[in-house]
Write a structure and sequence with these properties.
3 helices, binds zinc ion
């Protein structure tokens, strides 16, 4: 995914190479990915990102002016996007009411391990 961020009214939209708003197909449903901050979106006060299944929007914190931020914010933000996308896939699969599918540890495991799983699958031609 090659992407860039475009600022609009304090909200940064994840955009593709042509500057179009970044959307991702989640099991047939388009989700928009946006980046903003805790000042402009109070939903981010207690998290680094969230998935709003009602508006089909994934919101990621810019971490601008966040003291104590991680050294590699780009890598962390990518992990947060994967985490929120995992929530979207679980929701669109009809699994959001299952206790394991709401378990943040399970969702974070998917987000953290997926790149390694993909590499292993590709290395042995299983994908
Ligand atoms: Zn989560």
């Amino acid at each position: 995914m090659e992407a860039a961020y475009v600022a609009m009214c304090g909200v940064f939209l994840l955009c593709d190479k042509e500057g179009k708003e970044m959307t991702v197909n989640v099991l047939g449903t388009e989700y928009t990915i946006k980046e903003t901050n805790k000042v402009d979106d109070t939903n981010l006060e207690t998290c680094d990102g969230y998935c709003d299944t009602s508006t089909k929007t994934i919101v990621i914190d810019t971490f601008k002016d966040s003291p104590g931020s991680l050294g590699d914010l780009e890598a962390y933000k990518k992990k947060v996007v994967r985490h929120e996308l995992a929530h979207a896939f679980l929701y669109e699969s009809g699994l959001s009411c299952n206790s394991w599918a709401k378990d943040e540890e399970v969702v974070d495991w998917i987000a953290l391990q997926f790149p390694k799983l993909l590499t292993a699958f590709e290395q042995c031609g299983a994908i």
